[in-house]
Design a protein that fits this description.
273 residues; mainly alpha; 10 helices; 0% strand
Length: 273
């Protein structure tokens, strides 16, 4: 009796021309905007309960600063600088300080590994988290601006410019905060850098520029939130120069694009380590 291998029989199930196991086709790569929306909603729902008390603290802090400055600064340009700087300070507290702490803790705890396994572009992770944190600043910034205008007797007619100041200044500060948190080797250092950044926004943004030394003014020009403060402060005048307002907003937006690009690069760098 001869033994014939089963795989050479004509009717055998093993006698096939194509491989038995075919490589599965991968699904299409996730697009940026749907991924961004998904990350934004997830971050917004996760941080809603935890960040509301901190937003109250940020608003109370800015309001308290304006009350203290009421007896120090004069009316006019100094009052405009205080109100504009205090309003943008709410954005700096959340978008810069808290976001630096969040990404610093996420990197230290290995949370970046979770995002690295998801089929989402790195830019969607950074932009989604930055957008969610910046969204929490809207109520506090509006409340601070209205309270400051009433306290210093400034007009309320052009408060609509906050619709441009908040997202542009929020993008610039959120990108900076995310980059600090992702580049810091330890979460404690990320927290320290976030606190220092918020302190710089407080000292250089709220205090009138006319009372600062020349070297401090140059440092103030390097802070991303300065251009949002300047754009908002210019609208309190009787006849705002909208060309300068748009110029400040354009610079703020350009800085936001650069800072978010740096944060995206820092995320890629931290995720592969």
């Amino acid at each position: 009796m001869s033994v014939v291998p089963a795989d050479v029989l004509p009717g055998s199930a093993l006698a096939v021309d194509e491989p038995a196991v075919c490589a599965a086709e991968l699904g299409p790569r996730a697009r940026l905007w749907p991924s961004l929306a998904a990350v934004y909603r997830a971050q917004l729902s996760r941080a809603r309960v935890a960040r509301i008390p901190l937003l109250f603290v940020a608003t109370f802090q800015s309001v308290g600063i304006m009350v203290l400055m009421r007896g120090v600064v004069d009316d006019g340009a100094e009052a405009q600088a205080v109100v504009a700087g205090s309003s943008v300070l709410v954005v700096a507290f959340v978008a810069l300080n808290l976001l630096a702490q969040y990404f610093g803790q996420l990197r230290a705890s290995g949370g970046l590994d979770h995002y690295a396994t998801l089929p989402v572009p790195p830019a969607a992770v950074v932009l989604g988290a930055a957008g969610a944190y910046a969204s929490f600043t809207v109520p506090g910034t509006v409340v601070t601006a209205v309270f400051g205008c009433v306290l210093f007797g400034l007009p309320l007619a052009h408060l609509w410019v906050l619709a441009a100041v908040i997202p542009l200044a929020g993008a610039a500060l959120a990108g900076l905060g995310a980059a600090l948190g992702l580049l810091a080797p330890r979460p404690e250092l990320a927290t320290l850098l976030g606190q220092l950044g918020m302190s710089a926004a407080l000292l250089l943004g709220v205090l009138p520029a006319e009372r600062m030394p020349e070297a401090v003014r140059f440092t103030r020009d390097l802070l991303p939130s300065t251009y949002g403060v300047e754009a908002f402060a210019r609208t309190f005048g009787p006849r705002p120069d909208w060309a300068f307002v748009l110029g400040d907003l354009a610079v703020c937006g350009l800085v936001g694009v650069v800072s978010l690009a740096v944060a995206t690069w820092a995320y890629r760098r931290a995720a592969v380590r």
